[in-house]
Design goal:
The complex is a heterodimer of chains A (420) and B (217). Chain A is α+β, with helices and mostly antiparallel strands and 420 residues long. Chain A contains twelve helices and seven strands. Chain A is 68% helix and 10% strand. In chain A, helix 2 packs across helix 6 and helix 11 runs antiparallel to helix 12. Chain A is elongated. Chain B is of the alpha/beta class and 217 residues long. Chain B folds into two domains: 130 residues, Rossmann fold (3-Layer(aba) Sandwich); 70 residues, Orthogonal Bundle (Arc Repressor Mutant, subunit A). Chain B is built from ten helices and six strands. The longest helix of chain B has 14 residues. Chain B is globular, with a radius of gyration of 17 Å. Classes of the chains: A alpha+beta (420), B alpha/beta (217). At the A-B interface, helix 8, helix 9 and helix 10 of A face helix 1, helix 4, helix 5 and helix 6 of B.
C-alpha cells in the first residue's frame, strides 16, 4: 500500500496514515539536519585538509556517506511505504579485501544518487516537512486546547475573540474537524511526495533490477552445481568405501565356504554370503540413483541407453549429441529421462517408448514419447516436480503433452553452449 | 581345483580387494606374479614379462574412470595372446562395448561380486585363459532385454537366443542343456542353427564369434 492509495481510501482520516505521515515528516527534520551537517562538515574538513592527502581521501569518500544516509533513509521510508524501498546496491563479492569492498561501493551509481538525495534532504526536504507538519500540528493543538486557553484569558482567533471556556468549546466543535481534515490530507500529500522522491532516488533502477535478477540466477546455478558436486562426492565415498568393503566381505565368505566342511556352520556362511551380495546389489542400485558412474565416464547417451536397457519396456534410443555436455546439464537430462521412463512403466500402460535427443540452436532437446493411455501431469507427487526446479535453474523447461487416451510426449529443453 | 598353474598379473587399486583376490588365486594354485594398484604400472609389468592372464579393475588411479579398460585395450593390441579378465563394480555395457571392439576372445567381463563365488570365478578365469569369452550373467540379462529388431540376431528364434545368451555366459553345451532342461543333442542342433544363421565360417572359433556377434547386438 502506498501513501497515495491510502489518501484515496475513504477511511484515510480514521486510519493510522495521518499519524504515520506526521511521524515521517517530523523524523525528516533531525535526519535532514544531520545529513547537511555531515556533508558540510566533510566538505569543510576536506577543504581544510586538502593540502595533505587526507583531504582528498575524505572527498572521495562522499558517495560512501551518501550510501550510509541512503541506508537509514530507506529504513525510515518504511513508515509510509509498507513494502519499503529495496536496495539498489549490488552484492559485494566476498573475495574482496575491506579496502576493495569500500571502493566497490563508492563507485556505484546508486551511491552517487544517494549522495544527491542526502543533499536534497538536508537543503529542501526537512524545512518543507518542518513547516507543513509544524503548522498543521500547532493549529490542531491550539484548536484542541481552545476551551482551556479561552477560560483563562482572552484569545484572538481570526475575526473572533474567545473569552470563555464555552466559546472556546464551540470553536473546537466548529473548526476542530475541519482543521483535522485539511491538515491530515495536507500532511499525507507532503509525506507521500517525499516518500516518492526517496523511492525514486534511493530505489533500484531498471538495470539494477536486472542485475539483481542475474545475480539470483547465478546463485541458483551455483546451488545446482554444489548439489552436483556433493552427489559426486557421496557416490565416490560409497564406491571407494562401503562397496569395496562389501566386495571384500563376499570374497572372504566365499573362501570360508571352500574351507568349511558340509554342515550347519557352512550353511550359515552361505546364507551370510548371499545376504552380503543382496546388500551389495541394493547399494549399487542406490548409487545409481545418486550419481550414475556411466554418466560421468561415458556421457549422456551411454547413460540413457543404460536406463533404457534396464526398463522392462522396449525403449528406442535415438541420440545425436556431440561428445560431452556440461556436467549439470547431462545430470539434469539423465534424471529427466530416468524419471520419465519410470513413470511410463508405472502409469502409462504403454507397449513402446522412444527417447530422442539432439542439439538445436544451442539447446539440448530431449523428448520421451510413449504409446500409452496419456493423462500424465507434472503435478505434485510425480518425481518430475523437483526436476523442473532443477531445470529452471539451468534456464531449461519441461513440457508434458498428454491428452487423455495418449500418446504422452515429454519435451525437455535446456540451453547449452558447448563452448562453456 | 585347477589342473594347471596360471601366471597372473593383478591390477586393483583397493588394497583390501587386491589382497583378497591374491589370496583366492593363491589358494587355487595360481601364481600371482605381480599385484599392482594403477594402470601405468600394470602396462609396465605386462610389457616386461607377459603373464598368462591379466585381471584388472575398470576404475583405477589417477583419473578413477576407465583406466583399467584402456590398459586392457592396449595390452590386447600389443600382446593378443594374454587373456584379460576385467572386473567391474557396475553392470554397464558401455564398458563392455569398448572392450569388445578390438577383441576376438580370451576376454572376460565380470562383476566383482562374482569373485565371492570362488569356484565359478576360477572356472571363468580358466575359460579366459583358454581364449574363451565370459560375460557376467547380469550384463547378459540386460543385453537380452534390449533385443534389436534389425541386427543379425533378428533371424534367430527365441530358443536360439536363449542358447546364445548362455553361450555368452561361457557355458559349455552340457551346462546349457542342463539349464534349459533339454538334451545335449538338442543344444548341439540349436548351436549349429545359430552358426548357420549368423553365417559363421568353419575354421574360426565359431563359438566365440557367435558370442561376440551377440554381444555387439
Amino acid at each position: 500500500m502506498t501513501p497515495w492509495a491510502a489518501l484515496a481510501s475513504p477511511r484515510y482520516l480514521v486510519s493510522s496514515w495521518p499519524w504515520r505521515s506526521y511521524a515521517y515528516l517530523f523524523t525528516s527534520v533531525p535526519m535532514g539536519l544531520l545529513s547537511i551537517c555531515i556533508l558540510i562538515g566533510a566538505a569543510a574538513a576536506g577543504a581544510v585538509l586538502s593540502p595533505i592527502l587526507i583531504g582528498i581521501l575524505l572527498l572521495t569518500a562522499f558517495p560512501l556517506l551518501g550510501a550510509a544516509i541512503g541506508w537509514v533513509e530507506r529504513w525510515r521510508a518504511g513508515l509510509v511505504l509498507i513494502d519499503g524501498i529495496s536496495s539498489p546496491h549490488a552484492t559485494i563479492p566476498a573475495s574482496l579485501s575491506r579496502r576493495e569492498k569500500l571502493r566497490f561501493r563508492r563507485r556505484e551509481r546508486a551511491s552517487l544518487r544517494a549522495l544527491g538525495y542526502a543533499f536534497v534532504l538536508g537543503v529542501f526536504v526537512w524545512p518543507l516537512s518542518a513547516a507543513v507538519a509544524g503548522v498543521s500540528a500547532t493549529t490542531l493543538l491550539i484548536t484542541l486546547a481552545a476551551p482551556v486557553i479561552a477560560d483563562g484569558e482572552e484569545m484572538g482567533m481570526g475575526p473572533w475573540t474567545l473569552d470563555t471556556a464555552q466559546e472556546g468549546f464551540i470553536f473546537l466543535l466548529a473548526f476542530g474537524p475541519v482543521f483535522y481534515c485539511i491538515s491530515s490530507y495536507l500532511v499525507g500529500v507532503v509525506a507521500g511526495a517525499e516518500a516518492s522522491l526517496a523511492k525514486a532516488m534511493l530505489g533500484p533502477r531498471q538495470e539494477e533490477l536486472q542485475r539483481n535478477l542475474a545475480e539470483l540466477r547465478r546463485s541458483r546455478l551455483d546451488l545446482v552445481d554444489a548439489f552436483e558436486t556433493e552427489r559426486a562426492r557421496i557416490e565416490r565415498h560409497l564406491h571407494d568405501g562401503v562397496q569395496q568393503r562389501l566386495v571384500g566381505l563376499t570374497m572372504t565368505l566365499g573362501l570360508a565356504e571352500l574351507d568349511l566342511p558340509e554342515g550347519q556352520g557352512r550353511q550359515l556362511v552361505v546364507k551370510a554370503h548371499s545376504e552380503a551380495e543382496a546388500a551389495l546389489a541394493d547399494l549399487r542400485e542406490a548409487v545409481r540413483g545418486i550419481h550414475p558412474r556411466v554418466l560421468v565416464d561415458h556421457g549422456l547417451e551411454a547413460a540413457v541407453r543404460e536406463v533404457a536397457d534396464r526398463s522392462p519396456l522396449p525403449v528406442t534410443v535415438q541420440m545425436a549429441l556431440p561428445s560431452r555436455l556440461p556436467p549439470p546439464i547431462e545430470a539434469a537430462a539423465y534424471f529427466v529421462v530416468s524419471e520419465a521412463l519410470a513413470n511410463v512403466t508405472k502409469h502409462a500402460q504403454a507397449t513402446h517408448c522412444e527417447v530422442a535427443g539432439r542439439i538445436a540452436d544451442q539447446q539440448l532437446v530431449i523428448t520421451v514419447t510413449d504409446d500409452g493411455i496419456g493423462g500424465a501431469r507434472t503435478g505434485a507427487g510425480t518425481g518430475l516436480t523437483g526436476l523442473v526446479t532443477r531445470l529452471d535453474a539451468l534456464g531449461g523447461t519441461l513440457v508434458i503433452d498428454s491428452p487423455p487416451g495418449g500418446p504422452t510426449r515429454l519435451r525437455m529443453e535446456c540451453p547449452c553452449r558447448l563452448g562453456d | 581345483m585347477p589342473t594347471r598353474r596360471l601366471s597372473i598379473v593383478l591390477a586393483e587399486d583397493s588394497l583390501l580387494l587386491r589382497e583378497g583376490l591374491a589370496s583366492i588365486l593363491d589358494r587355487a594354485g595360481h601364481e600371482v606374479r605381480d599385484a599392482v594398484g594403477d594402470a601405468d604400472t600394470l602396462l609396465a609389468v605386462v610389457r616386461k614379462e607377459p603373464p598368462d592372464v591379466v585381471i584388472t579393475d575398470v576404475r583405477m588411479p589417477p583419473g578413477h574412470s576407465d583406466e583399467g579398460l584402456r590398459a586392457a585395450a592396449a595390452i590386447r593390441a600389443e600382446l593378443p595372446s594374454i587373456g584379460i579378465l576385467v572386473l567391474s563394480q557396475y553392470v554397464a555395457d558401455a564398458y563392455l562395448s569398448s572392450l569388445l571392439e578390438t577383441t576376438t576372445g580370451g576376454i572376460g567381463y565380470l562383476l566383482k561380486d562374482r569373485v565371492g563365488h570362488v569356484a565359478e570365478f576360477l572356472e571363468s578365469l580358466d575359460r579366459v585363459a583358454d581364449g574363451g569369452t565370459v560375460v557376467d550373467p547380469e550384463v547378459v540379462r540386460q543385453l537380452l532385454a534390449r533385443r534389436r529388431n534389425d541386427g543379425p540376431l533378428a533371424a534367430l528364434t527365441p530358443r536360439e537366443l536363449e542358447v546364445l545368451a548362455l553361450m555368452a555366459e561361457g557355458r559349455v553345451n552340457a551346462s546349457i542343456a542342463e539349464q534349459l532342461v533339454v538334451s545335449e543333442a538338442a543344444v548341439r542342433k540349436h548351436v549349429g542353427n545359430i552358426f548357420a544363421k549368423l553365417h559363421l565360417e568353419d575354421g574360426l572359433d565359431r563359438r566365440v564369434s557367435a558370442v561376440l556377434t551377440y554381444l555387439r547386438g
